[in-house]
Structures are given as structure tokens and as C-alpha cells.
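anyone seen this seq b4? input:
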Amino acid sequence: MASNMITVNLEQGMPTVEQAKQRLSAELGRARASGAKAVKLIHGYGSSGVGGKLRIGIRQFLAAKKRQNTIRLFVVGEDWDIFHADSRQFLENCPDLSRDRDLGQGNPGITLVLL
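predicted toks r here
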């Protein structure tokens, strides 16, 4: 996958929403320090009951980060499509993500973050 994007699986270890938020904060810092432009989060979509809470909690957390200007943009997996304005903005910043396997798939289990 793209060298300027890292993937983080927030579902791993079945964390609570709070644990996942703490891990996400640390991972965003690591990604920034490594020079990555983007982070792809895997949080699941809720089929087990846990992913639903994670997905909602993580997206609320990212919305707050965007309001604080800590991240530039985030795109939910359902909107990760060349026809969505935020996705196009994301792709302008990271053109190599046009090859991402989830692009255009409407995957509710992921969220992409532009640092």
C-alpha cells in the first residue's frame, strides 16, 4: 500500500472505546512523526456489537480532532469514493491512494484520516 499512509487496526484486542481512543491518539502522533500523510483506521462496523461502539466513538473523536485542527480531514468508509467531495480532497493530497482496495467499496468498517 501507499508509503505515505499507515494502517491501524483499532479492533485488535477488543478494546473499549476509551482504550481505542488512547491508542488512536498515540498512533496519530507516531504517524505524524514518521512523515505519513494519512492513516487508515480499521474499527469494524458493529456486527459483533463492539465494532459499532468503536466506529461511533472513534468517529466522534475524529470530529473533535478536526474541530481542534489536530487533523485536516477524515473520510468515513461509506463515503470513501471518487464521487465524494472529501474523498476527492483526500486523493488530491495523497494521489497514490487512488489504488486503495477500499476506494468505492462503501466499507463502514474503516475511516481514513488526513494528517
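The beta strands are 5-9, 38-42, 73-76, 110-114. The first helix runs from residue 17 to 34. kinda curious what u guys think
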